[in-house]
Amino acid sequence: MSAISISNLSKTYPVPFRRLRAFFRRPVKDPVEALRDVSFEVETGEIFGLIGRNGAGKTTLTKIVATLVQPTTGSVSVHGHDSVSDDEHVRRHIGLSTAEERSFYWRLTSEQNLMFFARLHGLSDRIAKQRIKDVFSKLELEEVARRRFGELSTGNKQRLAVARALLANPPVLLLDEPTRSLDPLAAARMRDLIRSLAEQDPPVTILLTSHNLAEVETLCARVAIISRGRIRAIDTPRNLRDLTSGSETVQITLASGEKISFTRQPDDDLLDKKIRELQTYGKRIIDIETERATLLDVLERFEAADEQS
Fold it and tell me: Of 153, 161, 188, 279, which residue is 20 to 30 A from 105 by alpha carbon distance?
């Protein structure tokens, strides 16, 4: 059974006071279609990436899976339980980490905040204290345990959001920009933690949204590209990159310091011809670098196609 199953999911936000505005002949905007016929599954223990520009539908999709928003049509199930008809069960099996700081109490310490949320999960004080100790250790938050949330750096607030998601030891994690505002070392440790959660026994299933496409490519077994509320492609990062022309950029550095750049297809002999040509003219090559398409190139391709349609 898939950990997360999303079927024909759509979400349209109605216009507030539409009839009243029409009655007074005020301008009326069209309803906002945030998601349109979205379907995919996330396997147990998989790290699944969701990428797209701001407003593409990532946040709405995550909130529907977390039961915070109800779909207009379609369905979401988590380990076989429907997010609407069995929302309480789904919430017990999901840990949600968002970049929104408003859900924490700024005058409480980090420890007090997590104790509050642990009690909402129904954990006894004894178990809660042990879980808080464990997640603080995993995320290296011991030093800020007794500091008020409002005094924390942006990076520590982000790590505390992940700590809260881990409190009840859920089998499914929804991580929205988990390394946002973290320094490079802290971001690397967060990625290591995410990998370890997916590899533990039993494994944690992770739905990850991020604007850091290199991070998504490193962590995720599969990636979905969402644009204007629609899923445009789902595949491994490597296969998604191959959706572009497959070309690669080559940069040759000469001993003189001169750099020569050109684009080639992986199977052509253009690079060999360039090397022979340079050697014919007595040029000494000291370095050759190649760079293939990235997930950013793939994302930009679909965005450009949507803008033209």
Answer: 188
Closest CA to 54 of 228, 233, 265: 228
Burial 84-96 (b: 16+ CB within 10 A, else e): eeebebbbeebbb
Query: What burial class does residue 125 get, using C-beta atoms within 10 Å of its C-beta: 0-12 exposed, 13-18 middle, 19+ buried?
Result: exposed
Q: Contact at 8 Å (CB) between 4 and 82?
A: no
How large is the angle between the packed helices 125-138 and 154-166, nearest 10 degrees? 130
The answer to whether the bond into 178 is cis (omega within 30° of 0) is no
Q: How far is CA 103 from CA 46, 106, 212, 282, in A?
A: 28, 9, 24, 66
pLDDT in tens, the chain (309 residues): 799 999 999 999 987 777 767 766 777 777 889 999 999 999 999 999 999 888 899 999 999 999 999 999 999 999 999 999 999 999 999 999 986 667 899 999 999 999 999 999 999 999 999 999 999 999 999 999 999 999 999 999 999 999 999 999 999 999 999 998 888 889 999 999 999 999 999 999 999 998 888 899 899 999 999 998 999 999 998 888 777 656 677 889 999 989 998 877 767 888 889 999 999 999 999 988 876 667 777 777 777 776 666
